[in-house]
Amino acid sequence: MAELFKSILAWMTSSGIKIIGIIIGLLIIHQMSKWIIKWIEKFIPGKDLLEITETKKRAHTLGNILRHALLILVVLIAIMMILGELGIQLGPLLATAGIGAVAIGFGAQSLIKDIISGFFIILENQYRIGDVIKVGDVSGMVEQLSLRRTVLRDLEGIVHTIPNGEIKIVSNLSKEWSRSVIDVEVSYDEDIDKVIDLLIEIGKELENEEPYKNSILEPLQILGVEKFGESGVSIRMMIKTAPLKQWEIGRELRRRIKKFFDEKGIQIPFPHRVLIFRERSEKIKLPKV
């Protein structure tokens, strides 16, 4: 028993300390990688707030990818060092791992497809962490992005995990700038030119007020009459905003239009029908032959 205790103590004072040091070093490197990425993001240059925000998204996404890749590499090196300290021969183990990797490769084609697709998504800067995207029938904000998968959270808080290899068409709703497109319907009895002037006035008021003026990149643009509906005339307008601000600006614009129209007596029509009643004609009696 004493000999066993001495052997354990001798191993702990030699290999054990080295293994503990390797694990502590791994944890330190992992934590330092987080600090370095956050530190770099603070010194990102940019001409304006919008450019800085876009660059930070890109840096945050790339930083997470590099940090995870570095962590995997360091973990593999640490495992090999720990196995060496435990006296396990790495040569036969690496040969077995190589044969296993070939066998796994045939069954992991979808995984390789995901990684290649993720690589090009990041390389081409298709979307970043913090962007709102739409993939098929699913949309939401990108919370995580790796070489293998994309994680979205929608407006209801539901998390959607999508393998990158399954992404065929992706729509980015918040890259560089966004746009809110609004259709306003007014009665056929209203003066269209007067309504357009009022809409322009509403847009100018919104552009000069806090906290909305910093989110609006271009003045409200009236495109004109979009269509003739069953109950009124539809006027289309659009406004260019900072990323992710199109919904906030659109909601505030609709609120102001409704309030302004009520004050000016402009009618926003609702579906109605015109019924025409006619008296039933008497039956015509044909003369007998």
Task: Tag the structure with descriptive keywords.
five-stranded antiparallel beta sheet; Alpha-Beta Plaits; 3 domains; Helix Hairpins; 289 residues; alpha+beta; SH3 type barrels; 51% helix
Characterization of the model:
- This protein has a five-stranded antiparallel sheet. A three-stranded antiparallel sheet has the order 6-8-7.
- It has 289 residues and is of the alpha+beta class.
- Helices cover 51% and strands 18% of the residues.
- The model has no long low-confidence stretch (mean pLDDT 80).
- The chain is elongated.
- The chain has six helices and eight strands, in the order ααααββββββαββα.
Gist of the model:
The protein has 289 residues and is α+β, with helices and mostly antiparallel strands. It is 51% helix and 18% strand.
Please report the number of helical segments: 6
State Rg: 33 Å
CATH fold label of the largest domain:
Helix Hairpins
Low-confidence stretches: none
Spatial separation of the terminal alpha carbons: 134 Å
**Main structural class:** alpha+beta
Shape: elongated
Helix content, binned percent: 40-55%
What is the CATH architecture term of the largest domain?
A: Orthogonal Bundle
* Beta-strand segment tally: 8
Main β-sheet, spatial strand arrangement = 4-3-2-1-5
Question: What integer is the average pLDDT?
Answer: 80
Number of domains: 3
Q: Describe the main β-sheet briefly.
A: 5 strands, antiparallel
CATH class label of the largest domain: Mainly Alpha
Order of helices and strands: HHHHEEEEEEHEEH
